[in-house]
Amino acid sequence: MNARGPVNAPVRSVARIEQALREQLSPERLEISDDSAAHAGHAGAGGRGHFRVRIVSTRFAGLSAVQRHRLVNAALAPLWETDLHAVSITALSPDEPAARGQIR
């Protein structure tokens, strides 16, 4: 345990993010990175983390970037109060060239 909560809290947060996105968006590919250490002491974070999500799902086909982000944020909605302070999102459909290679 530390001042921000259990030491393994980021691991649980990544697992919760993964579960929510898999259940809601059925991704073909999903990568989640915990970037919280780079934001240590960030005002307003309140022990919640900063994460980077890279997701490929057929649910994104034909949608704008804003619509894709809304779907991801809706899937993560229950976690904003407990686990998340910020999420950087790369959301692609499988037919996009970037989805077939390494997502950057």
Written overview of the protein:
Residues 1-8 have low confidence and may be disordered. It is built from three helices and three strands, in the order H-E-E-H-E-H. The protein has helices spanning 9-25, 65-76, 97-100, and strands at 29-34, 49-56, 84-92. The protein has a single domain, classed as BolA-like (GMP Synthetase, Chain A, domain 3, 2-Layer Sandwich). It has 104 residues and is α+β, with helices and mostly antiparallel strands. Helix 2 (65-76) links the parallel strand 2 and strand 3. The N and C termini lie far apart (34 Å). Helix 1 (9-25) crosses helix 2.
Task: Please describe the topology of this protein.
Elements: H1 9-25, E1 29-34, E2 49-56, H2 65-76, E3 84-92, H3 97-100
Parallel strand pairs: 2-3
Antiparallel strand pairs: 1-2
Helix pairs in contact: 1-2
Number of strand elements:
3
Gyration radius (Cα, Å) is 14 Å
Mean pLDDT comes to: 81
Q: Could you say which overall geometry the principal axes of the C-alpha atoms support?
A: globular
Distance between the termini: 34 Å
Name the beta content range.
15-25%
Provide the CATH top-level class. Answer: Alpha Beta
CATH homologous superfamily name? BolA-like
